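Q: Start with the shorter request: fold the first protein.
A: Done. Sequence, then structure:
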Amino acid sequence: MPVMRWKTLCCPQCEGQLLIPLTVLRYHPAGGTSPEPSGYRCATCHSDVDQKAMLALLRRQELQHELKALEDEHETLSQTVSAASSDASNASPTRVTRGSLNSRST
């Protein structure tokens, strides 16, 4: 099982890594104020970012990396197969006949 590591989420628009947490202050006369998380804003491009969009970007990057690795593996395997088939076609086949098996040199 692969080891899971922490990943840094990025802004889907500019791929900036610095995010500013936004907070809404709620007020009630009987309870005072209460901070409530309200999303994030990118510190680079100043756009509001959605956690789902950041996770989708991360997943897309992981899939692209996996696809690249599979393409490289496919290319390596196809080169190995083509090299092996060219070696096999260049080798001269050995014919074995019934007479050559029964004949003995004395």
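Q: Next, the second protein, separately.
A: Sequence, then structure:
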Amino acid sequence: MSLIGRSALIVLTLSAVSVAQDIRTATLVGTVTDPSGAAVPNSGISVVNVQTKVETKSQTTADGEYYVPFLNLGTYDVSVEAPGFKKFVRAGLVLEAGSTVRVDVKFEVGAVNQEVEVTAATPLLATDDAVVGGLDDAKKIEESSMLQSKPQHLMYYMEGAYSDNGGTYHILGEPANLINYTVDGANVKQSIRSAIGETSTSLTVPVDSVAEAQVWTTGIPAEVGHSAGGTYNMVLKSGTNQLHFASEERYINKDFVDRAYFQQSVANLATAPFEYHNFDAALSGPVVIPKIYNGRNKTFFLLAYRLDYDHEANVSTTSTPDAGMLSGNFAFGGLGLPIYDPKSIACTLAAGCPSSTGWTATAFPNFQIPQSRFDPVAAKFLSYNPYAPPNTVGFYSSTGPNNNLTALTHYLSDREGYVLKIDEQIGSNDRFFVRWGSNMFREPIGRNAVQYAWGAIDSTEYSYGLREPIDVKNPTLGYYHNFGPTLINEFRFAYQRRNDTVQPQLNNQGWAGILGIPGVGPQTFPGFVGASGGSSVTWTANPSGSPSNTNLRTLNEDFEFIDNVTWVHGAHTFKVGYQGMIVRENDIAVSQPSGVYNFATSGSGLPFTPNTGNSFASFLLGSVTSATFTNLLANYLPRWWSHQAYVQDDWRILHNMTII
């Protein structure tokens, strides 16, 4: 199918889904006014489902209007509050699927802790909550549109689940990190606390390997643990006596890619690299080794693979030091701020200068720092030509050049997934499966900062200077034994490992000594950091730190032990089970023994005088505002156990009535 045809199909599919959601859900609207009829903006709206206690919050606009969509059918308590008015409460409001209900509010003057309660005329619904959720089978999974063929996005189509703007999923409004996410019954998140979404924090299996995907929202069975926020489970396919093969390739041709909607410049787009492939394949069948082993009817395999290959470049306009700035000229077309010689700072008061008054310094003539005054470390650093030269006119401000560089910022992302599953029927009473799942996430360049000609000093996340390979591994074993027709035991063991490492390219190369900084270790590149607002150019070079200054390695491991026993006795089905989990981390924090050197405008400005100095001028002069030196003393090694046990009796009193 052509790209245009596939795009049209996706649009039609999403349109159909939107209509279906409107039919199933309700919308609450209204206007909030004060006693005089004037709108009350920023009023707090709380809509609480009486049956599930799920709370949806909103607030009124400047016109006093509110709009709360996608409410599951049921009975709701609506409360509206604002300072200076009595709290408005509307109890017992019945919302039906596909309806849009208006509740206008007219406040009464009073305290918030006072309430005005209005009882809805419609009687409360007599409902009895059971297990609520949705299920997609293999056929529906294959026919559903999914962003980048990631099966976690099947939640988009599930009732009760939704995604926020960051691509993180929630179930019934609960926090995203409380969702239990499993594949073949094994936890596949970075840790039990992680969210599900458009990230590399969980196992991503090939979509063609998925047999079923289900979301449970309420009434979740007792044997499912860690599910305070709902549960999302995928069951992978198993082989059969027939050989099956399926594959899919999604490819975007560069000729179909145009500039972004608001992008006026088309410079470099004609030669910008672009290649996107999304490939899935699955092979399953019996394990047969000719003349050695015939596994038909008892031993089956599944092999699956996925590749998400995204290599592209986009135009980026930014600011870079120009020739004048690099030579010490900070006039900036007559707009520059005065640059003062830090060696000339003196106190003019005989009694001393204990406060911000009485200080003086000598400004460099014509905003020019003589190159003879350049600090040797700064001069050595600049000899490596670390910054890209300007290629557009841009404009000057008082802190330097702006928008004088237009270049391609690259994005290289290679993500692979592997699955191997073996199912074995040992005998009539015993069977097991073993499954290996893994991912390799490689994003060597993630929107690199184009002002760095020396790419190794770029500290942008996933940049040339900070590569970040991520590996996820998840082996699982399940064993089932029938002690008899009414007594069954299930045992599972699973191991989840995610290793996220940041690899600064310039570490352990002795750069402090090369640049001429004495008395510090050779382990890291000395960080040169310009204070925010001190220059129009982001000139900071700190490639030995991580973008968020957190960890060089984050290693998460989970060990799961699960056992469930089911005993059917008359009208009762008894279940008893245990889940134990060992959770541990082994993290290496960022340390920079070679130092981080901070430069502010005060290093080249008149003391305690605003609108003087420039952070890059302070760097050229070697006028360090502050410096930090850190050493790693110990790894972060938390360990903890999680124990869960349950006993459940399903008692079928009548053929159409069961008590759980």
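Q: Describe the second briefly.
A: Residues 3-119 form a domain with the Immunoglobulin-like fold (CATH 2.60.40.1120). The radius of gyration is 32 Å.
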